[in-house]
Amino acid sequence: MPTTLHFTKMHGLGNDFVVMDPVTLSITDIAQLAHRHIGIGFDQLLVIEPSSRADFFCRIFNADGSEAEQCGNGLRCVARFVHEEKRHPASHLTIETKAGVFPILIKDYDHIRVTMGAPQLQENKLELMLTQQSVVMSVLSMGNPHAVMAVESVETVPISQLGPDIATHAFFPQGINVGFMQIITPHHIRLRTFERGAGETYACGSNACAAVAAGIAHGWLKSHVQVEFQHGSLHIEWEGEGKPIHMTGPATKVFDGVVTL
């Protein structure tokens, strides 16, 4: 029997989401909904559920149906959604994901601040052998795994080749999100991200945090960094090892819809 699903389409700097209330979907269902020609189209599906530890729990599913631990841009979108829908009218709230509980402050819908926890630097200078070359990167956890490479230009780096090669490398059995960072100044970087389970996305909040943490650890960056993506910027603050990292950026509602599976 067909199932009718109500949803809201949102994005954070082009990293796009479908937001839903609790629903049971198979991996095939999620991949079908994520398809940009025969479905709705999204990078991640965000399912809002009750939480015993926070104001809300958010389950995060990639476009291929795999489940992710957390999503920085998605957290901002869920915060706007519950606030705008008057499910949580206060400007302060907490959202739990599989990675933990994240405090959020809504200044306005263009400036939503998420406290992302303390970055865990696992490898500061990992040399990884690929099929035809070796690459050097930092490996970090933001509650989800990230590899960050410094590059001369994000416009010329072959992301369509390097992204999947690194994201699915045997060294990372659970897969990894890969960031390609171009340093403009100590307070400004450009970033492109290849996300496990989704491919290259227009933006990635947790990867922005990982890139800034890696850059500060190397001495290339200082706190308060503008992270520029194709469709806008995030602002990242980090006081150093053991301290939580803060991300501020917009959340945009695109439309409400109904789909039948």
CATH architecture of the largest domain: Roll
Number of strands: 18
Order of helices and strands: EEHEEEHEEEEEEHEEEHEEEE
Count of structural domains:
2
| Helical percentage | 10-25%
Shape: globular
Query: Poorly predicted ranges (pLDDT <50, ≥5 residues)?
Result: none
- Rg (C-alpha, Å): 18 Å
Number of helices: 4
The structure class reads: alpha+beta
CATH topology annotation of the largest domain:
Diaminopimelate Epimerase, Chain A, domain 1
Distance between the termini: 9 Å
Biggest sheet overview: 18 strands, mixed
The fraction of residues in strands falls at over 45%
Question: What's the CATH superfamily of the largest domain, by name?
Answer: Diaminopimelate Epimerase, Chain A, domain 1
Overall mean pLDDT: 96
CATH class of the largest domain: Alpha Beta
Outline of the structure:
The protein has 261 residues and is of the alpha+beta class.
Describe this structure in words.
By secondary structure, the chain is an alpha+beta fold. It has helices spanning 27-34, 72-84, 159-167, 205-218, and strands spanning 4-12, 15-20, 44-49, 56-62, 67-68, 92-97, 100-108, 111-115, 120-129, 134-141, 145-150, 177-185, 188-195, 199-201, 225-229, 232-238, 245-249, 252-260. The chain folds into two domains: 4-114 and 250-260, Diaminopimelate Epimerase, Chain A, domain 1 (Roll), CATH 3.10.310.10; 120-243, Diaminopimelate Epimerase, Chain A, domain 1 (Roll). It has an 18-stranded mixed β-sheet that branches. The mean pLDDT is 96.
